[in-house]
Amino acid sequence: MNFKIELPEDTFMVTRDDLKEVIKVLMDEIQKDIDNTQIMTIKETSEFLKVSVPTVRKMIDNKEIPFFQRGQVIRLNRSDLKEWLRKEMRKEGVQ
Fold first, then answer.
1. How far apart are CA 27 and CA 25, in angstroms?
2. Which residues pair with 77 in a beta bridge?
3. What percentage of the chain carries pLDDT values higher than 90?
4. Which of 4, 37, 53, 66 could crosslink 80 through cysteines, CB 3.0-4.6 Å?
């Protein structure tokens, strides 16, 4: 039995695994963009870290967590905090 398949000229074929890899790379890039642009307040940071607002303020005062300041306004970058958490977990031996 012979089959003949005709495809439009602009069509190209990819394997399922190749398509999965492309989608994964795109999703990683989108997530990085979201993380890099997500700036949080102290209250949002306390919710993200699941600690109290005074605890976050104390961590900022002690320069334990990454933050930036514009005048009197303190903000924290979610991706910086995620990286800080990863490093802290490695120090504690948590995988």
1. 5
2. 39
3. 56
4. 66
